[in-house]
Design goal:
The protein has 4 helices and 3 strands. The protein has 125 residues and is an alpha+beta fold. It has one domain: K homology (KH) domain (GMP Synthetase, Chain A, domain 3, 2-Layer Sandwich), CATH 3.30.300.20. A hairpin with a 5-residue loop joins β1 (36-42) and β2 (48-54). α1 (2-24) crosses α3 (74-84). It is elongated, with a radius of gyration of 19 Å. The model has no long low-confidence stretch (mean pLDDT 87).
């Protein structure tokens, strides 16, 4: 179990570092100002990291462009992350879109529609 704790601590530290680097140092117009890094999945050997990113954009092409920009900047991001976090070797980064927040907003909207009274019906309390 101590192995899991070490990996999860380093994943959380990487998440915070990635957030700071992407927000302040990556200057690409394809990356919107409003995004969230939800989690970082690190392999147990710390060689690979999957970064889950959520962004509230309507256009799928803009989301794909953002991922392409992050992939293009991954070398720079790895180098900057290596300066902030001390690891034997910096893991390879892969960025994936996570639509769980958008999905939860959609479900919440559907639930609100269901809970509103229809024409001619009274709301029960």
């Amino acid at each position: 179990m101590p192995e899991y704790d070490r990996v999860s601590r380093q994943a959380e530290e990487m998440r915070r570092g990635l957030d700071a680097i992407i927000r302040s140092e990556v200057k690409d117009p394809r990356i919107p100002e409003i995004f969230s890094i939800l989690k970082v999945d690190l392999t147990r050997d710390l060689k690979y990291a999957k970064v889950h990113i959520s962004v509230m954009l309507e256009d799928e092409n803009e989301k794909k462009a953002m991922l392409k920009a992050l992939k293009g900047a991954s070398g720079f991001i790895r180098r900057e992350l290596g300066r902030r976090i001390i690891l034997r070797s910096m893991p390879e980064l892969s960025f994936v879109l996570d639509d769980s927040i958008e999905y939860s907003v959609h479900i919440n909207h559907l639930l609100e529609q269901i809970s509103q009274p229809q024409d001619g019906e009274e709301k029960k309390e």
